[in-house]
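Q: What structure does this chain adopt?
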Amino acid sequence: MNTLKKKKLRESSVKQVLKTLKLLAVVFFVIACAFFLFVNLVNAPNKGRIDKANKEKCEKIIRTLSAYKQVTALYPVSLDKLIPEYLSEVPLKMMQDGDAGRPFDYNIEDKGRVFLLKYNEAPIGSLPSDSYFEYRSDKGSWVQKFW
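A:
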């Protein structure tokens, strides 16, 4: 074989190897993305359940705060002031399945005439939350806000 044919054969072999490597890289990327989505979507039902549980707990707090304000004319400076007369304990928010260890974010404004109650949206698997829900007593409704 002459050197020109050998060189063309080598170049052809190198091109074929590069094509194969590119194809393998694409296949690996697609499989990695599919795995990531699968792992996170498996946890998606938990997200809805956690968000629902947090909202139900907040609704209980809101009703309790309304009862407190009817008696005192102002909202309490902290949720702990509702214990023991209005609540046996302050409900805690869930962030992960089975985790219920942190208090809801509560603040008063306008010298105790308005309160804000907030909690973060539950994450989807390993994807962090990108929003939170906020209730303002002067508006009487929930708003979802994004970071």
